[in-house]
Amino acid sequence: MARTRRRAGTSVLLRRAQWTAAGVLTGTGLLGLLLFALGREHAWQALGGGLVIAGASTVLGGALGFLFGVPRVRSGSGEPQGSYAPNTNLEQVSDWLTKVLLGVGLTQLGSLGERLHQLGTALAPALGGADASVPFAAALVLYFLVLGFLAGWLVTRLALPRVLTETDEALDLFLAGQDRDRRGDKVGADDLRMRAMQQLGVLGGSADRPAALAAQLPPALGTPAGPDGVVAEVRSTAKRSALTAEQVRGLFADGSEGCRIQALALMQGDPALADLPSVLDAIEHPRSGFEQYHALLAARGLLSRLPDDGAQRLRNAVAAQLVDPQGIPYGSDRSWLAEKILSRLPAASVAVPAQAAPVVPAQPSPPPSNS
Fold first, then answer.
1. CA distance 42 to 46
2. How many whole angstroms separate alpha carbon 318 and alpha carbon 297?
3. Is 248 in contact with 257 (CB distance < 8 Å)?
4. Which helix (H) or strand (E) holds 73?
5. Helices 226-236 & 186-199, crossing angle to 10 degrees?
6. Global pTM?
């Protein structure tokens, strides 16, 4: 635990140092441009032209850095599907340039200064047109071109492989959910779809996952995939289990969080083992968000088996948790699942009392006539 905390602290410090270095380098270039523009006759024109030149150079450098940093898909037979490796194009180009420099010789580099002078001359009018604008324009282009290249290459090298990997994993989960849906496993399909949306950042996950859940389950059911994998393993063995509905209710009534979640997983895998009062208790009084999430999944599998009064009790429990500030958080996987459950439950029927017939006052009889 202490080692994990030290690693997390080191990662935070490194990230701060990286952002600080990026800010200092960018700020140095912009400060130099500002001081140069203040000394020109048309300061605002020089500042605006310099910002455009700096921005264009940064974009060009960033695009080049992106091209060199795009990761490639691992194609080896021993590599996991969808994994990415760093692009070695920059290393190959560096090696090629080194060989070219050694072959051509340093004497051929004399034209580089002339090219930079031509570039500075072309851009000098945007910075005021004075003689000092020529070298400054060339230096400005070089500074922000290299800065943009390094920034584009580092961001692409560090961030893009992770984004691509997470997207591939989410797509795999969506496809697996579609396959589960075709086989009639609605609960497992919804679970995989929500995990895919969490992978993409569309939904928030259920917090407070019990880390000791795997240790609380029988050793034969243990799996290194974490609490989600343990629950999925228990769910898949529910219909092959010799447990009865009464034994599953007793397992839930045991009270420990691991036993309650194990019972909910069994109810998800086989609705014949489900017990509505236990599911409602886990929805209304959960030990954790993880438990409430799996209670909602168990309720999802019960929708086609509930009588009218049971459906109304489930509707009331889920709706109360949605409106409770301490209940189901908005935008989480639980809220998505709760809203799906409510949409599949029949609308609550409200008895409307019959309206009484209006009372028509009796008309007074006409007085008798004296004939």
1. 6
2. 12
3. no
4. strand 72-73
5. 170
6. 0.60
Query: Chunked in runs of 10, what are the mean pLDDT values of the chain (371 residues)?
Result: 56 79 89 90 89 93 82 59 59 66 62 81 87 89 92 84 81 83 79 79 60 51 60 81 86 84 87 88 89 88 86 91 88 87 73 45 53 42
Number of other CB atoms surrounding residue 343 within 10 Å = 7
Task: Show Cβ contacts of residue 246 under 8 Å, excluding neighbours closer than 6 positions.
Answer: none
Q: What span, in angstroms and rounded, lies between the C-alpha atoms of 45 and 41?
A: 9
Euclidean distance between CA atoms 182 and 191, whole angstroms: 14
User: What SS3 class is residue 176?
Assistant: helix
If you compute the radius of gyration of the chain from its CA atoms, what whole number of angstroms results? 35
Are 180 and 188 in contact by the 8 Å Cβ rule? The answer is yes
Contacts 24+ apart (CB under 8 A), 68-74: 68/93, 68/153, 68/156, 69/152, 69/153, 69/154, 69/155, 69/156, 69/157, 69/160, 70/156, 70/160, 71/156, 71/157, 71/160, 71/161, 71/164
Q: Is the dihedral of CA 200, 206, 211, 212 positive or negative?
A: negative
Question: What's the DSSP call for residue 103?
Answer: H
Residue 347 CA from chain centroid, whole number: 33
CA–centroid distance for 139 within its chain: 41
Exposed, middle or buried, 165 (CB in 10 Å: 0-12/13-18/19+)? Answer: middle
